């Protein structure tokens, strides 16, 4: 596999989507594991059947779609439930991610993996790019975006790798404050760097 794989990660509310969108605007293929997870829980998929078996039919709506928000709230309040859900989804996400990477023909791709460190998928990427922001800013953004309570937001943060541990694993760090122009400049600089590294890897 000659394609250079950049693992993009960061805590909830850090701005991973904004960063991945900017890479996409540079023509870089982006594989988002959250989207892979959505594909895996579509009606009729084996993963969804396992989730219903584990958590009961009330986790589905009247159309047979997974009630994602309801299930998220449930598992973040119950660590054993979260581990059960992860055991169903994470191996499948890993397999699907590997398949998508294998089909990439561009010099490099960005794999958005919010739980990159937690799920042990580090071996699938060549470099780790962490989008970093303060915890206070994470909470503010999540409350504004998701309409959840502060308690729920803190539970989600607590379930993720601690900020300092994430930064310690990083090959590259993007500081994502309020200045989007600065963020875009950082992405543009990294794009050129990754193209150079991809050329070295392919040679």
Helix-strand blueprint:
Elements: E1 4-9, H1 16-25, E2 30-32, H2 33-40, H3 46-55, H4 68-76, H5 79-102, E3 108-112, E4 127-132, H6 135-146, H7 150-159, H8 163-168, E5 172-175, H9 180-202
Parallel strand pairs: 1-3, 1-4, 2-3, 4-5
Helix pairs in contact: 2-5, 3-5, 4-5, 6-7
GO cellular component, one term: cytoplasm
GO molecular function: ATP binding; dephospho-CoA kinase activity
Organism: Candidatus Competibacter denitrificans Run_A_D11
Task: Provide an overview of this structure.
The chain is of the alpha/beta class and 203 residues long. It has a single domain (4-202), classed as Rossmann fold (3-Layer(aba) Sandwich). Helices cover 55% and strands 12% of the residues. The protein is built from 9 helices and 5 strands. It has helices at 16-25, 33-40, 46-55, 68-76, 79-102, 135-146, 150-159, 163-168, 180-202; strands at 4-9, 30-32, 108-112, 127-132, 172-175. Strands 2-3-1-4-5 form a 5-stranded parallel sheet, sandwiched between helices. Helix 6 crosses helix 7 (150-159). The longest helix has 24 residues, at 79-102. It is globular, with a radius of gyration of 17 Å. The two termini are 12 Å apart. The mean pLDDT is 90. Pathway: Cofactor biosynthesis; coenzyme A biosynthesis; CoA from (R)-pantothenate: step 5/5. It catalyses: 3'-dephospho-CoA + ATP = ADP + CoA + H(+). One of its GO terms (biological process) is coenzyme A biosynthetic process.
